[in-house]
Amino acid sequence: MQERLVNELSKYANFSELQIREILSAFKEVIWNKNDLIIKQGAIFNSICFITEGVIRHYTINKAGEPFTCDFSLPGQWLTDIQSFSEKIPTNYFYQAIQPTKLFVITHQALMELYNSDPIFERCSRRIIEQTLLRISSRTEVLLHLSPEQRYLKLRKEQPELIQQVPSKYIANYLGLTPESLSRIKARSRKK
Q1: Is it the case that residue 6 has pLDDT exceeding 80?
Q2: Among 4, 68, 74, 103, which one is most buried in terms of CB atoms within 10 A?
Q3: What HEC string does the chain produce?
Q4: What is the pLDDT of residues 28-83, one digit of tens each?
Q5: Contacts for 132-137 with beta carbons within 8 Å, 24 or more apart?
């Protein structure tokens, strides 16, 4: 599993063997069971996680008291609440493992120590944050400019593993639909 983390980090910088060992010693592997809450709303998200297995659901509770799924994180993706992490303030979200999940986790303190040891770590982190922000920006564009059916078709095309691995009720909520509306959209799309 460490190999997957090393491969991911190597996309952003050419690390020496010594730097790789330093990185790996800063990360800890953590395993979560299905339905475990990784971080609860109101806690400080004091780490950055790299997902190697499983799916994590990001959600909040709306004013009506109902959960709203904001995003999912999949294997090969990074996870944190950047505002909570950077400003050390409570997160507004819950982060739930919806499958058995394995993460590599680095704390804020350990990351700052890496930054101070060599500028290459800071450059690598900046590139990871840029990629994450692009993903979030794309999600916002989809919500603003596509119809519910277009959102589903785009998700099915670009992230079929999400459709296969995540319960339909969460997918519907993520797309801003009721489960019944999602079922109708799925039925229509099968006929095309």
Answers
A1: yes
A2: 103
A3: CHHHHHHHHHCCCCCCHHHHHHHHHHCEEEEECCCCEEECCCCECCEEEEEEECCEEEEEECCCCCEEEEEEECCCCEECCHHHHHHCCECCCEEEECCCEEEEEEEHHHHHHHHHHCHHHHHHHHHHHHHHHHHHHHHHHHHHHCCHHHHHHHHHHHCHHHHHHCCHHHHHHHHCCCHHHHHHHHHHHHHC
A4: 999 999 999 999 999 999 999 999 999 999 999 989 999 999 999 999 999 999 99
A5: 132/77, 132/78, 132/82, 135/77, 136/71
CA 87 to chain centre: 19
pLDDT at 49: 95
What tokens were used for 18? 């010594």
What is the number of other CB atoms lying within 10 angstroms of the CB of residue 63? Answer: 5
Residue with tokens 């394995």: 102
Q: pLDDT tens, 82-122?
A: 999 999 999 999 999 999 999 999 999 999 999 999 888 98
- All structural domains of the chain, each given as residue ranges with its CATH number in brackets, are 2-118 (2.60.120.10)
